[in-house]
Structure formats: C-alpha cells, structure tokens
Amino acid sequence: MKIRHFLYNSFLIENSNNKIAIDPGQNLWIFNLSSLIPKAEWKNITHILITHGDPDHYWQADRVAQASHAPVVCGKDLAKVEGGETLLVNPRGRGLTSWVPFKNVHPLDIGESVSLGDVQIEALKTVHGPISVPILCFKIKQQPGPGERVGIGSVGFKITVDGKTIVNLGDSVLQTEWAGLKPDVLMLPIGGPGNNTWTMDVYDALEAVKIIAPKKVIPCHYNVAFFWIKNIACADDQLFKREVEKLGIECSIMRYGDEIEV
C-alpha cells in the first residue's frame, strides 16, 4: 500500500483495489488556485473522505465524486436531509446559504463507522480551532460553532484497509480521546495555535503522538499558502521529526506529490 501527499491535508491511499482520497480541496495560493489532487487521478478514486467543509479540504469534493462515482464519507454536521435526499454544504458556496445533493454519501457521527467494500471507516472526535488570518494591519478572526461555515462537520477518520490502520485528524486541536488508537500510520497537523492558526502546533502534536502511539507519523497542514500569504501555519518539521524519532516512532516528511510505502 502506498500513500501520496498533496499539501494541506490532502492524501491518496492506494492498494491494488482502492484509491482513497482524503480532503480533495483547493490550493489557496492566489497564483496557483488549482485542485490539490491532480485531475488525472480523479476518475480512479474509490472512496472520498472529507474531514470538514473548509475550502482547502472540500472545494473539489463534488467534482471528484462526479468524475469517480465514489462514495463520500463525512461528518454528520456537513450534511442534512431534505425531502428524503441527503444534501451537503455547497463546496464553493457562501456560508451556509447553499446545499447540494450528493448521490452516494455517508455522514457519520463520532464513533460511527461504515464499511465500503473492503475499507472500514470510523469517525473520530476532532475540534477545529479558531481561525486568525492577518489582512494588512488587521486580523480576521472566525470562531467555529453552530451555524458557522468554518470547520463545519469536523471529524477525523480511522481507516482500516489491507490489515493496516491509518488515522487522519484533519484540522484539530489536541483531544485526550485519541489515547490508545495505536494506528500503523498517523497523519496530523502541526502548524498550530502558536502561529494564530487553527490546529495543534508542533508541541501539541508531539503530545498527540505520545498518547496515540502510532508506528509511523506524517505531519501535515503546515507551511502552506493562503491567498497572497506564501507561508502560513508555520512549523519546524525537522524539530518535530527529531522529537518523534526520540520516541522510537518513524516520521516521514512529505512534500507535494511525495509517495511512501506502508
């Protein structure tokens, strides 16, 4: 099985039968507003997992679903039912004013799971932190919560395939409920609150690694672009890697398009 990374929290997990896409969102750099997962990959995707409804995680989800006919798994708060039809927040809509139908969608509450083919997916508790973005001399702050678009539907995923377990924590602050998960692979954000962003920082992420006890760690969602800001959610990935390896755990630093075998 191989894992490929496409910045932010965007991944492809592949074996002989499956191509699982996590967060097929949008590159937010104003000079490269494109899909994180290349369009050439879309039609062969077999599962689409959405950790929440922010553009860098969700912008291309309906287009990937249309191209691939793959089932979509997301948090229950990203979805609603009207007239017997399941609708999700419009990936490119404004606020919560627009909802669109998805043909094959599985909204999960925390602790619920679904088996799709030979892939089992369980929703884990995550909590999206507040966003603080510098705009000229000001900062725009947004606090996730009921009726807010920021972080809507926030969940993590425990994915079991090929006898291996992969945990992806989306954009989350540290949660004690993760203790003892012990996955083969842990994907977690490190570009955190010390930098006025919305996830764990390096030190909280290290605490998460200690309580989760994975075999391998992939840090993500750091040193990424946000419109005209070239590098936001700053983090020292080499420091993180050194500290993880002191725990006797493997750590893979992945750049855009990098691939590892697990």
Automatic annotation (TrEMBL):
<dbReference type="InterPro" id="IPR001279">
    <property type="entry name" value="Metallo-B-lactamas"/>
</dbReference>
<feature type="domain" description="Metallo-beta-lactamase">
    <location>
        <begin position="7"/>
        <end position="221"/>
    </location>
</feature>
<dbReference type="InterPro" id="IPR036866">
    <property type="entry name" value="RibonucZ/Hydroxyglut_hydro"/>
</dbReference>
<dbReference type="Pfam" id="PF13483">
    <property type="entry name" value="Lactamase_B_3"/>
</dbReference>
<protein>
    <submittedName>
        <fullName>MBL fold metallo-hydrolase</fullName>
    </submittedName>
</protein>
<dbReference type="InterPro" id="IPR050114">
    <property type="entry name" value="UPF0173_UPF0282_UlaG_hydrolase"/>
</dbReference>
